[in-house]
Automatic annotation (TrEMBL):
PANTHER family to which the protein is assigned, alphabetical: SI:CH211-161H7.5-RELATED (PTHR33802), XK-RELATED PROTEIN (PTHR33802:SF1)
Subcellular location field: Membrane
Keyword annotations of the record: Membrane, Transmembrane, Transmembrane helix
Taxonomy, superkingdom: Bacteria
UniProt entry tagged with the keyword Transmembrane: yes
Topology within the bilayer: Multi-pass membrane protein
InterPro entries for the chain: TspO/MBR-related_sf (IPR038330), TspO_MBR (IPR004307)
Organism: Microbacterium koreense
Protein name in the entry: TspO/MBR family protein
Pfam families linked: TspO_MBR
Family statement drawn from the similarity comment of this UniProt entry: Belongs to the TspO/BZRP family.
Keyword field contains Electron transport: no
Length: 274
């Protein structure tokens, strides 16, 4: 291979890497702009009021209380921090960032798309969009789990931020699906709503437990998933629709996820020391 060919290949690789970095940064800004629109802070309709109000905290038994959505500020801050960190020259050809980069950009674009379809009152379309977002985040998490961060900064801005993102989207997907079922008039086949809510929360808990043991007790996804479910409990004890049975089921789900995460973390740390 001639030196000119080698130089051309190096230039192409560098261009592709820079393009990836810039697109991730732009995607993070796009997601934050969409979030402002979705909050109704300047213009746009607040998510709770869009799409017929079916995503409001009082729409279904599985809907988290309004306070739960404060976690988006943490997630967006974390993802912006990641976008800024990964655009630095030192991360340009980092193998780990190359593997997750385009997936991260896809997750941020899907996040903005979800807000867009809800703003357009296309509730039915919000579920496939958030389902795709969940699949993308799972893919990112698998890559992160199979590779190691090189320092504490990467641990926080990559593994930590994306872990929080994943945990929250798990419970958000569940709430989204429940809202659509409610909007379509699903009657639960005659089964009491509290039983259905307990089943759904039990499924969320099983996902959290499985994630805890598979990930070696990673704290970020467990924390955000538990946060979301805890706010389901708060909403059902303090607001409409009032359902102490659902509140208790949510508390049990959180307890199981936390216990599983602690056990998994201890086991992982003990193995690492051997």
């Amino acid at each position: 291979m001639s030196s000119s060919t080698t130089t051309s290949n190096d230039h192409s690789t560098r261009t592709q890497a820079i393009t990836r970095q810039v697109i991730i940064l732009i995607s993070s800004v796009l997601a934050i702009v969409a979030a402002f629109i979705g909050s109704g802070a300047f213009f746009g309709t607040p998510i709770q009021e869009a799409a017929g109000g079916f995503l409001n905290s009082d729409s279904t038994l599985i809907a988290p209380g309004t306070g739960a959505f404060r976690i988006w500020s943490v997630i967006y801050t974390g993802m912006l921090a990641y976008a800024i960190w990964q655009v630095l020259p030192g991360q340009r050809h980092d193998a780990r960032q190359e593997r997750i980069g385009w997936w991260v950009a896809a997750s941020l674009i899907l996040n903005a798309a979800w807000i867009g379809v809800v703003q357009a009152d296309l509730l039915w379309l919000s579920l496939p969009v958030i389902a795709m977002l969940l699949v993308v985040l799972c893919r990112i998490f698998v890559i992160l789990r199979r590779t190691r961060p090189k320092n504490i900064v990467e641990t926080v801005v990559a593994d930590g931020a994306i872990g929080l993102y994943l945990g929250w989207v798990i419970i958000a997907t569940v709430a989204n699906a429940t809202a659509i079922l409610y909007a379509t008039g699903f009657d639960g086949f005659g089964i009491a709503p509290e039983i259905w809510s307990a089943i759904v929360l039990g499924a969320a808990a099983l996902i959290g437990i499985a994630l805890a043991f598979w990930s070696g007790g990673r704290l970020a996804p467990a924390a955000s998933l538990s946060w979301g479910i805890a706010w389901v409990a708060i909403a059902r004890f303090t607001a409409e629709p009032y359902s102490p049975e659902t509140g208790v089921a949510a508390i049990v789900a959180v307890a199981l996820i936390v216990i599983a995460t602690v056990i998994a973390r201890v086991r992982h740390d003990l193995r690492a020391r051997r």
